[in-house]
Amino acid sequence: MRVPAALLSFALLAASASAQTRHNSNAPIDFNAGTIELQDRANRAILSGGVNVRQAGMSLDAARMTVNYTGKVTDGSPQVSRLDASGGVTVSRPDQRARSQYAVYDLNRRVITMLGGVSLMQGGNTVNGGRLTINLDTGRATIDGSSLGTTKAPDGTVIQQGGRVTGRFSVPNRD
What we know:
The chain is built from one helix and twelve strands; from the N terminus they run H-E-E-E-E-E-E-E-E-E-E-E-E. With 175 residues, it is mostly beta strands. It has one domain (5-168): Lipopolysaccharide (LPS) transport protein A like domain (lipopolysaccharide transport protein A fold), CATH 2.60.450.10. The strands form two sheets. Strands 1, 2, 3, 4, 5, 6, 7, 8, 9 and 12 form a ten-stranded antiparallel beta sheet that branches. The longest helix has 14 residues, at 5-18. The radius of gyration is 18 Å and the shape is globular. The relative contact order is 0.15.
């Protein structure tokens, strides 16, 4: 029985995504940004201006990020519980990159959810959709066609509507 090349590429993408090593969400989080505004009473910090966050081989880049933390302090640093990113968000992990308009990194659940024009690239494969969920314990990435809304032209016609996942899988050369 011959397996279609597109199906084989999809299987390789799925196996590769599942084979990702477990991310250490307990590792320290390093950041840099143009500005930081501390809001201690609200237990949060607002980072803006080319924000870059790094944690154990993963990076998250965005125009703006809200860092929510608990009231607990460990080794002189507050305990971060959630990162909310907006504006050209990119999450990079070994052999995988995802882009969107918004992202939420829930450190307690160890899950990253990305919304709005999502694109996931791994090797030569690309998958697009409305929402991406990355489980950092398993490395499993799931994309669905959910969307933040419908885009309409000035005359009212629908230009883009959510609901579908699209993509392109690379096919190995055969001689």
